[in-house]
Write a structure and sequence with these properties.
Arc Repressor Mutant, subunit A; alpha/beta; binds zinc ion; 5-stranded mixed β-sheet; 15 strands; Nucleotidyltransferase, domain 5; about 20% strand; 3 domains
Length: about 400
C-alpha cells in the first residue's frame, strides 16, 4: 500500500515537473538544460532526464550550441513546432476559410471556398471536403493532425453544439460530435467572434494585452471578451452577444425580437443597405475603392457607420473598462475611413476615466482573426494533453 502510494505521488510530481520543463522551452526557448534548471529551480539531473523524455516524444529538439559562459558551449533546446499540425476553420455565411498551422500557429497552408448560404447538408459536405483537403496538405509528422478548431456564425454551447445560427438558418447542429466522428481527432467549436478574439490575443493586435474586447463586424456584429488574457464565456458560453445591444430606443425591428439593435446600424449589412438606398455600390470592396477615389458620398456613409460603431463601442467600454477594443472581421478592411468617426463617438460617449488608457485598434490579422483563433483552440487542446501526460 505504502509503496504504491509513493509511486502515485512520484508519477504526479514527474508530470508536474515535465510540464514545467516543457512550458519553459515552449515559452522561452531556445534554452539550455542549465538555463531551464535556473529558471525552474529543478536540479540539473532532473531537468536532463525530463528533457530526454521530451526529446524521445519529439516535442523538444536540440538545435546546436549556444553561447558559453566560459566553459563548454551548451546545447540549446527548442520546442518542435512541426511535431504535429492543427486545422483552423472559419465557417462563414458565404465562405469557408481553412488554415493548416504548425504547433506555434504559423500558417503552412491556407484555402478559401465560397458558398452561397448553404443548407445544412451541403454545408457539412463542404466543411468535410475542406478539412480533407487540408489534411492531405499536412507534411509528415510524429503526431499528425492534433485537432480541428471551427469558428461558426452563431451561438454555440459548451458541448460544441450550434444552437442558433440565424444567418445560416441551420437550427440546432451537434457539430463537434459530427466532425469528431468523421476525423477522430479532438474538435473545438466556438462562435466566430470568440475565435477572432482568441486569434488577435494570441497572434494579432491583442498580444500581451490583458483586457481586450474584440468586435467582429461582418454581416452581423459579434463580440469576444478577453479578461485577464482568458476568453470570458459566461455561465453557458453565450456571452458576447453585444450585436444586439439596443442603441435606438424606437429603432428598426431585429430578427432577435428586440428593436434598434446595434448590428442593424453598424454592420456590413447596414453599410450595404444604406449604400443601396443612396445608389452607391452594394459591395464592400467596391465601396472601399470608391472611398479610395475620394467619393464624398461614400466617405460620408463610412463616417456615419463609424459613428454608430463608436456608439456601441462606448457602451462596451463603460461596462468592461478594457485596455483595447479591436475592430475585426470584414469591416476592418475599411479602417482608414471608419477610424476617426469611431474615435469621436467613443470620446463623446464614454466616461472620461476610461479614455486615458483605452485604445481602439483594428485587427492585425484582418479577416483571418477567427481562422487563426480556431487553429489555436486545436493547438491549445493538444498542448494541454502534453502537459498532463508527462
Ligand atoms: Zn437584435
Amino acid at each position: 500500500m505504502v509503496k504504491s502510494q509513493q509511486t502515485g505521488d512520484q508519477t504526479m510530481i514527474k508530470k508536474i515537473n515535465t510540464a514545467i520543463v516543457f512550458d519553459s522551452v515552449l515559452k522561452n526557448g531556445p534554452l539550455s538544460r542549465a538555463q531551464i534548471s535556473e529558471r525552474s529551480g529543478l536540479n540539473k539531473a532532473t531537468v536532463s532526464s525530463l528533457v530526454l523524455d521530451l526529446i524521445d516524444a519529439k516535442l523538444v529538439e536540440e538545435i546546436g550550441q549556444g553561447e558559453s559562459n566560459g566553459g563548454r558551449k551548451p546545447v540549446m533546446l527548442l520546442f518542435n513546432a512541426q511535431a504535429g499540425y492543427a486545422i483552423g476553420i472559419d465557417l462563414g455565411v458565404n465562405y469557408i476559410r481553412g488554415v493548416l498551422t504548425d504547433l506555434l500557429g504559423h500558417v503552412i497552408e491556407e484555402r478559401e471556398w465560397s458558398m452561397k448560404r448553404p443548407d445544412l447538408t451541403s454545408g457539412l459536405k463542404q466543411l468535410t471536403e475542406c478539412i480533407d483537403k487540408l489534411i492531405a496538405l499536412a507534411p509528415e509528422s510524429p503526431y499528425g493532425i492534433v485537432g480541428i478548431g471551427i469558428g461558426v456564425p452563431g451561438i454555440v454551447d459548451d458541448k460544441g453544439t450550434i444552437l442558433f445560427a440565424p444567418n445560416l438558418e441551420w437550427g440546432r447542429v451537434d457539430l463537434q460530435q459530427y466532425v469528431e466522428d468523421k476525423f477522430r481527432v479532438p474538435v473545438t467549436i466556438d462562435n466566430e467572434a470568440n475565435a477572432g478574439a482568441q486569434g488577435e490575443q494570441k497572434y494579432g493586435a491583442g498580444r500581451g494585452i490583458a483586457h481586450q474586447i474584440y468586435v467582429s463586424v461582418g454581416i452581423g456584429i459579434g463580440t469576444g471578451i478577453i479578461l485577464h488574457k482568458e476568453l470570458y464565456k459566461g455561465a453557458s458560453g453565450f456571452s458576447g452577444e453585444l450585436g444586439h445591444l439596443s442603441i435606438e430606443y424606437n429603432g428598426k425591428p431585429c430578427r432577435c425580437g428586440n428593436q434598434g439593435c446595434w448590428e442593424l446600424y453598424a454592420s456590413e449589412n447596414a453599410l450595404l443597405e444604406q449604400a443601396g438606398k443612396q445608389g452607391l455600390p452594394e459591395e464592400l470592396d467596391e465601396l472601399i475603392a470608391s472611398a479610395e477615389a475620394g467619393d464624398e458620398r461614400t466617405l460620408a456613409l463610412f463616417r456615419s457607420i463609424g459613428s454608430y460603431l463608436g456608439a456601441g463601442i462606448a457602451n462596451i467600454v463603460n461596462v468592461f473598462n478594457p485596455d483595447v477594443v479591436i475592430i475585426g472581421n470584414r469591416m476592418s478592411k475599411a479602417s482608414r475611413w471608419l477610424e476617426e468617426a469611431v474615435q469621436e463617438a467613443v470620446d463623446m460617449r464614454t466616461l472620461s476615466y476610461h479614455r486615458e488608457r483605452m485604445r481602439i485598434l483594428f485587427a492585425d490579422l484582418q479577416d483571418r482573426s477567427a481562422v487563426r483563433g480556431a487553429a489555436y483552440y486545436a493547438i491549445n487542446t493538444f498542448l494541454g494533453k502534453v502537459r498532463n501526460v508527462g
